[in-house]
Amino acid sequence: MLVIGIAGGSGSGKTTVVSAIKERLHDEKVVVIPQDSYYKDTGDLTDEEKRHHNFDHPDAIDWELLCKQLAELKSGKTIHQPVYSYISCTRSKTETVTVEPADVIIIEGILIFTCKELREQMDVKIFVDADDDDRLMRVMARDISERGKDVHWVIERYSNTVKPMFLQFIEPSKRYADIIIPQGGHNKVAVDIITATVEKSLREKKTL
Predict the structure, then answer these.
(1) Percent of the chain beyond pLDDT 90?
(2) N or C: less crowded end of the chain, CB within 10 Å?
(3) Coil vs helix vs strand at 12
(4) For residue 45, what is the enclosing H or E element?
(5) 97-106 residue pLDDT tens
(6) Residue partners of 83: CB distance under 8 A and separation at least 6
């Protein structure tokens, strides 16, 4: 089993890198554990409080549960991953996603390198870097089309939360990365090198 951590700012292209790795490793069983599934429930907040809630601060994540479930997967156990809704800002009390152990486990999220316990469970740590303007455009397109937000909300959140938290927590966590991908997830050369490295690591693990 190989555990890969993929971090980077919002809109940097992490999902593109994850998809590329999964496509290249089609002969292996791969599961993706998104950090976003482990947001703490904020259903008790008012609509106004939810609007100003900081989702880009490490305190917003249930690290204890994420670390526990990753450890369970690594020990061969099946987990029940939580389901979080960006629309209602709540974690489902009844619905979960069943995730079984796999050859490759990919942990993906903006803040995953800020948690020491989680970092220590990773075999490979990748940071996806991208231009700030490119990230902003992707964040706007995603939040409007997928999360039902309006332009004013997205711009306000980016200015007040996303950018400051990126500078305070996410950018500094880049120092923990084994590999940094410049130019975002569309850097085909970097993605090819990474997938080749992952394939080599898997072969080596299987021969041990």
Answers:
(1) 45
(2) C
(3) coil
(4) none
(5) 999 999 899 9
(6) 37, 91, 92, 95, 96, 97
Q: Which pLDDT score, from 0 to 100, does residue 96 have?
A: 93
Do 79 and 133 meet the contact criterion of CB atoms below 8 Å apart?
no
Backbone φ, ψ for residue 143 (5° rounding): -65, -30
Tens digits of per-residue pLDDT, 126-136?
999 887 767 77
DSSP assignment letter at 114: G
Give CA–CA dist 149/136, Å, rounded. Answer: 14
What is the b/e burial string over 6-38, where b = at least 16 CB atoms within 10 angstroms of the residue's CB? bbbbbbbbbbbbbebbbebbeeeebbbbbbebb
Residue 47: Cβ within 10 Å count: 7
Instruction: Report pLDDT for 147.
Output: 64
In a domain, 120, yes or no: yes
Q: CATH number of the domain that 29 lies in? A: 3.40.50.300
Residue whose pair of structure tokens reads 């796999």 in the numeric block: 102
Question: Can you read off the two tokens belonging to residue 190?
Answer: 């970097």
Domain count, the chain: 1
